[in-house]
Design goal:
alpha/beta, Spore Coat Polysaccharide Biosynthesis Protein SpsA, Chain A, 6 helices, 25% helix, Glycosyltransferase
């Protein structure tokens, strides 16, 4: 199969707003992959599992060979899609840190030998789906809905739709891989609130007419 025949559905689950930095990353990636047939699909829902399932169905209608999930709070290199395709795996992606302290990387490395393969990949038990390439044939082996939530009845914790997808895919015989080099180039866009320090007195707070107030 030549690159010109390869059809990729780029699925972006989101709410009503996309981050500007994400949009620029997506635009650069699309420009860098002009030899492929891309269909960028935005599925809006307040429930991310529904957005992902809708994205899979639209990718199937497009008759895609691969689906690339890119969450709307991601920043990524322009060669992201090409680098993931080169691995020629059923499920391969990148991980990234949580947006709350201590900012641990998401996902779980498969227990046992965690050494990299010859291709530089690490096998995972679970991986987040914010930057994940999935061969469409994977979904043919899974019952709908492909993405669903679950709960740990002992702890009461909700298990995300991405980890449940990984569990079900591995149970169906698929292996899940992480590209650690790409993971170091992924950004997870968050939000930070800025406040005037309490030690600053009211007399030293600049007024709106002060030029530095808009910085």
């Amino acid at each position: 199969m030549t690159d010109l025949q390869l059809r990729i559905a780029v699925v972006v689950p989101s709410g009503d707003v996309l981050h500007a930095d994400f949009a620029m990353s997506l635009a650069r990636m699309c420009a860098a992959t002009q030899g492929l047939r891309l269909n960028v699909i935005n599925t809006k829902s307040s429930i991310v599992a529904i957005a992902r399932n809708n994205g899979v169905e639209l990718a199937q209608e497009f008759d895609a060979h691969y689906l690339l999930f890119l969450d709307s709070d991601m920043m990524f290199p322009e060669a992201t899609l090409l680098r993931l395709l080169m691995h020629q795996r059923d499920i391969v992606g990148a991980t990234y840190p949580k947006r709350v302290p201590p900012y641990n990387a998401l996902g779980t490395v498969l227990p046992g030998d965690v050494s990299k393969t010859a291709s530089g990949l690490i096998e995972m038990a679970r991986i987040p789906t914010g930057c994940l390439l999935v061969k469409m044939s994977v979904f043919e082996q899974l019952a709908r809905p492909y993405f669903r939530f679950d709960a740990n009845e002992t702890t009461g914790d909700i298990i995300g739709e991405d980890y449940i997808f990984c569990d079900r895919a591995r149970s169906a015989g698929f292996r899940i891989w992480c590209d650690p080099a790409l993971s170091h180039e992924i950004g997870h866009i968050g939000q930070q609130v800025f406040r005037i320090p309490l030690v600053q007195s009211a007399e030293t707070i600049p007024s709106e007419t002060t030029p530095s107030a808009s910085q």
